[in-house]
Amino acid sequence: MQRLWTPAWIVRHVAMVVLVVGFLGLGWWQVTRAAQGNALSFGYAIEWPVFAGFVVFVWWREVRHALRAAPGPSTAPPPSAAADPEPVTTTPAVRRPVRAVRVPAAPLDGADDGELAAYNRYLSWLNANPGSRPGDYPG
Fold it and tell me: Residue ranges under compositional bias (Low complexity) (predicted)?
């Protein structure tokens, strides 16, 4: 439990308490406004306690995560070089992107249409000149 009393965790605990008290206070304020006849405040009177519950949920989840991820005493024997002669390779967390070469597709049957050919030339020009506007097309 000492892991949860570091300066960073104390700030988290205080922030959780301040947010929950603030959200519940805002919820109570909306209840009093709704009692005075403001119909919209009924929705907010429900919303603020939900926010407070979400803060408690996230705080509890982070506490559980910190307690589970804590290093404990290791019961496994130390690895020896003779027991495992092959090095263990790990998969990198970030992989290099795959580069795909773009090759224009072969024309289909009946693609000898003049308008289609002109449109394809226009698209090829736009692809070759990425910074230009369509109005700059010389054709």
Answer: 81-96
Span between the terminal Cα atoms of the chain, in Å: 73
Joined tokens for residue 115: 């308008």
Alpha-carbon distances, residue 26 vs 31, 36, 38, 50, 78 (angstroms):
9, 15, 15, 11, 56
Q: Of all residues in the chain, what percent carry a pLDDT higher than 90?
A: 39
Six-digit token pair at 5? Answer: 């009393």
Q: What is the pTM of this model?
A: 0.50
Number of domains composing the chain = 2
CB 4 within 8 A of CB 18: no
The pLDDT score that the predictor gives to residue 94 is: 72
Give residue 137's domain range: 112-139
Rg, C-alpha atoms of the chain: 32
For the chain, helix (H) and strand (E) counts, in that order, are 3, 0
Tens of pLDDT, residues 92-135 = 667 777 777 777 666 665 556 788 888 888 888 888 888 888 88
